[in-house]
DNA sequence: TCAAAAGTGTTCTTAGTACACCCATGT
DNA sequence: ACATGGGTGTACTAAGAACACTTTTGA
């Protein structure tokens, strides 16, 4: 590497040849993907806009442990792929998509988080555009399903997540504990048939999404190419969990979007101009 | 776990007994700590305040690979400790401190990041108060040293870091590439005798510190119990890399600090009131 | 006396909040 | 006609930026 090293008794090359990688007992490493998207559902009323909701992709486990519980899609990091490649590969296996946003969320490394053995898992958060959804059929006897995600904050640091795919409803309860550091800042009060510590991971992802939507252009990754400003506002409202005032919202995001000449029709009210995003923002 | 599982052919208990954890070839997992502190150096001029600087703790490697280069303190995650415990243990081994702030930074998982073997490393950023520094003597023939850290942004996404411990000067060059995702967003142009990808990790930590100082109370962890507002402002200025206007700065942080009845003396100018921090801010 | 830093006040600009109003559409 | 959402204006408040000035100290 550096000239001075050549002078040492053994060279780096020689050192590497003699290095024994089995010297340390190793944990396994997996990735888990928290995949969000926004879908809309038509309402009965011809005047009303379709209802938009936040959705999360889960897989029903076909094996022990946590058999028949729901889990985040993920898998083991292979020895010849980077952690990111691994997350991306798993994501593609589940969603068949290329055009998506992915960011590393957090690495969960508590000793007892998997009953099988010591597993450290790096979680990723992915956002995919609704127009791109093309869900792969369930593989190896395990079901894949999008769950509508709603959540509410309670008073004493508690935080409930509800996941509903039309058949199954999962209710998870989380607790913030500011006395704790790192991974244990969020504790699972009620796992609600979510496997492993995945309720906690989902909680982390939600918080990350909530925070970053305020100061980045993350939403962009949840929107189709053309969208109305009301649709955009609704996505913000869903993620932030509060209503926004239209005029103020529009002033705030006006530099992020570009007006087009297209309009949405098919509505029992005044047609709405379609917009596009015009830039990205760095987000380290 | 759940009642329905009991009905399955094999129980979870039985499943775990037969589970073979050696089924997958596993990467090794390490932690690396980016440990920052602020030290002050007296100036010759009796009127002037001491100069404050940002420092970073590095270890001189006594072994291949990267022998004689400087590296972040860290080590392997043991099979019976969480990743956070591991980072904390390493931190204590190096600094002997309890009272510190630590947060997970990022997990670096590129395949070729360690020439020995496949190593995934979870990096942590730690902030320690200058009053607490009690540096452990160098262990196992490797030197431990605080490096003064300065940095500058260049035009085309480039970013230079200079580390100086009085004897050795390390110059690292990093490049932001917004086309890339995740770990590869920052590339190493010049490693400057920093081992492995540690220049990149330091770059990540610096960016994190810069960003979070704006919307959290992280600085608190770099300040002594009592401090003047000018000292506090200087710490902000060092980390943000720009000068701030005194009156505006004081208005901005006025709710974070509490006035005390103490004053700093020993100066060739008007004595300065000492303040304390009064609250913490959550920072997920 | 004076350099250095402590400490406060003023003015202008920008961003955020709340609310009120009019417009266009399909049934 | 009318419910629904599209679209814009106004008025107030809070936060941010730039600058100017006074005060206090030790040598």
Automatic annotation (TrEMBL), chains A, B:
Q: Which residues form the Nudix hydrolase domain?
A: 29-167
Which InterPro entries would you find in this protein's record?
Answer: Nudix_hydrolase (IPR020476), NUDIX_hydrolase-like_dom_sf (IPR015797), NUDIX_hydrolase_dom (IPR000086), WH-like_DNA-bd_sf (IPR036388), WH_DNA-bd_sf (IPR036390), WHD_NrtR (IPR054105)
Q: Does the keyword Secreted apply?
A: no
Stored SUPFAM superfamilies: Nudix, Winged helix' DNA-binding domain
Q: Which domain of life is it from?
A: Bacteria
Which GO molecular function, any one, fits this protein according to its record? hydrolase activity
Provide this UniProt record's keywords sorted from A to Z. Answer: Hydrolase
Quote the Pfam families the UniProt record gives: NUDIX (PF00293), WHD_NrtR (PF21906)
Q: Does the keyword Membrane apply?
A: no
Protein's UniProt name: NUDIX hydrolase
Q: Which organism is it from?
A: Sebaldella termitidis (strain ATCC 33386 / NCTC 11300)
């Amino acid at each position: 590497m550096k000239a001075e090293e050549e002078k040492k008794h053994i060279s780096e090359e020689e050192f590497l040849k003699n290095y024994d990688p089995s010297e340390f007992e190793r944990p396994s490493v997996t990735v888990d993907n928290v995949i969000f998207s926004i879908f809309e559902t038509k309402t009965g009323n011809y005047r009303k806009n379709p209802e938009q909701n936040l959705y999360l992709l889960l897989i029903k486990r076909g094996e022990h442990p946590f058999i028949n519980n729901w889990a985040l899609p993920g898998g083991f990091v292979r020895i010849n792929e980077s952690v990111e490649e691994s997350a991306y590969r798993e994501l593609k296996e589940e969603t068949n998509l290329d055009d998506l946003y992915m960011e590393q969320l957090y690495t969960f490394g508590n000793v007892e988080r998997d009953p099988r053995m010591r597993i450290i898992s790096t979680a990723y958060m992915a956002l995919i555009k609704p127009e791109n959804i093309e869900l792969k059929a369930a593989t190896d006897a395990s079901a894949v399903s999008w769950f509508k995600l709603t959540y509410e904050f309670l008073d004493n640091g508690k935080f409930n997540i509800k996941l509903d795919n039309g058949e199954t409803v999962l209710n998870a309860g989380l607790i913030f504990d500011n006395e704790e550091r790192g991974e244990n800042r969020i504790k699972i009060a009620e796992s609600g048939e979510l496997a492993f510590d995945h309720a906690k991971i989902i909680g982390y992802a939600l918080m990350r999404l909530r925070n970053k939507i305020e100061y980045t252009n993350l939403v962009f990754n949840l929107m189709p190419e053309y969208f109305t400003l009301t649709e955009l506002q609704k996505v913000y409202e869903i993620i932030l969990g509060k209503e926004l005032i239209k005029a103020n919202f529009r002033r705030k995001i006006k530099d992020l979007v570009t007006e087009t000449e297209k309009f949405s029709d098919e509505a029992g009210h005044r047609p709405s101009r379609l917009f596009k995003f015009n830039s990205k923002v760095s987000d380290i």
